[in-house]
């Protein structure tokens, strides 16, 4: 198998643009790519930076309904004809000219990379433009039009892959990806998110476990609002490794929405850039342990587009290209100048938030009165026995 890492990028991905007042500004992608490039990550010998063509209608229809794809194309050609019945032309998903091609290109990048990993042409892949986890079979939702993660998972299954694990670290529940494989025991979807009691989309509780014949294939960890690095990392580390080891996937796909960060305007967690890098390293190690390194990492949410998204996803790319950044690594001066000229805002000076991002592992014991431990225990009690695991000790 090749040791290469494939990163999906070219500036055409910034055409996924809901307009000036929408929180998902494509500037976040441009600044991420430029930061990766200025750090030298795109120029490494074993890294391929590749573009992608929009996914075909046939490929989209492996996950999405035919009428929905037609509705997206209609809205894409004439935004005034957007149909709210399909979640199009709403505040969250306003229609824009070229929306179909822009959304389908994200799918193309994620599917191409997943299949390159499956064929052994790359060991790892990153599509930070992807991770559109709220898109459902027949509706756009939560800034997502087509679910690139779901189409890629389905493409792997259609190529003969027998088990895919998907870990969703976005602050929001990964509801669309979960729904696509609700009844499919070949796909484990694990979502760790802020509780639906305080955040969109209002779902993702521990008792949501998958359909008949696929019980345990969906796993949800709903965290209390306000928690930071120690609680978030403890939770991720208490569920993801044991479940993924037990499931033994052939490919690991992870979604790295960075709206968990303290500065994110939509979520209510207080996670740092550093903790997200720790989580990225954890899932990277897990892929080497369980799936021969076959790992595809995706972006997702993230609405603090200067201080948070570029640094978080550049750290993710650095891990995927085997050049993890040393603590306190300076942000390249060229990138800082570009940010300040483009946005008129001061750019961060280092790649770190200057925190330790440590956590206590579950194996050291738990406190049944602690809100994080109660959330973790609820998920472990609901899901672990379905995988032959002990909820308290594994
Ligand atoms: Zn690796
Ligand atoms: Zn999100």
Automatic annotation (TrEMBL):
Gene3D superfamilies: Histone deacetylase domain. Pathway: Ketone degradation; acetoin degradation. Keywords: Acetoin catabolism. SUPFAM superfamilies: Arginase/deacetylase. CDD domains: HDAC_AcuC_like. It holds the Pfam family Hist_deacetyl. Residues 22-318 form the Histone deacetylase domain. Belongs to the histone deacetylase family. This is Acetoin utilization protein AcuC. It comes from Kineococcus gynurae.
């Amino acid at each position: 198998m090749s040791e290469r890492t494939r990163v999906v990028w070219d500036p055409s991905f910034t055409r996924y643009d809901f307009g000036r007042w929408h929180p998902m500004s494509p500037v976040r992608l441009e600044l991420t790519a430029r930061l990766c490039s200025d750090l030298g990550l795109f120029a490494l010998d074993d890294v391929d930076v590749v573009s992608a063509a929009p996914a075909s209608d046939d490929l989209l229809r492996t996950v999405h309904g035919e009428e929905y794809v037609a509705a997206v194309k209609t809205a894409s050609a004439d935004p005034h004809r957007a149909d709210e019945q399909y979640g199009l032309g709403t505040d969250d998903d306003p229609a824009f000219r070229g929306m179909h091609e822009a959304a389908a290109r994200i799918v193309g990048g994620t599917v191409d990379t997943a299949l390159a990993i499956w064929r052994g042409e790359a060991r790892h892949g990153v599509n930070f433009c992807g991770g559109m986890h709220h898109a459902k079979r027949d509706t756009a939702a939560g800034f997502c039009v087509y679910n690139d993660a779901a189409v890629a998972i389905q493409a792997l299954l259609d190529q003969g892959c027998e088990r895919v694990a998907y870990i969703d670290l976005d602050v929001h529940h990964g509801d669309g990806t979960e729904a696509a494989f609700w009844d499919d025991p070949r796909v484990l979807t694990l979502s760790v998110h802020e509780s639906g009691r305080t955040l969109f989309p209002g779902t993702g509780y521990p008792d949501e476990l998958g359909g008949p014949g696929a019980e345990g294939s969906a796993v949800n960890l709903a965290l209390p609002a306000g928690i930071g690095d120690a609680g978030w990392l403890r939770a991720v580390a208490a569920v993801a490794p044991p479940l993924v080891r037990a499931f033994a996937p052939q490919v690991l796909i992870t979604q790295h929405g960075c709206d968990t960060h303290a500065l994110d305007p939509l979520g209510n967690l207080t996670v740092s850039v550093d903790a997200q890098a720790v989580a990225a390293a954890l899932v990277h190690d897990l892929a080497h342990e369980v799936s021969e390194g076959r790992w595809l990492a995706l972006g997702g949410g993230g609405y603090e587009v200067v201080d948070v998204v570029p640094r978080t996803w550049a750290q993710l790319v650095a891990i995927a290209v085997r050049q993890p950044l040393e603590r306190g690594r300076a942000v390249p001066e060229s990138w800082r100048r570009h940010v300040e000229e483009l946005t008129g805002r001061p750019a961060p000076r280092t790649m770190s938030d200057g925190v330790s991002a440590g956590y206590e592992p579950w194996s050291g014991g738990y406190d049944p009165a602690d809100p994080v431990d109660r959330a973790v225990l609820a998920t472990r009690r609901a899901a672990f026995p379905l995988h032959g695991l002990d909820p308290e000790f594994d």
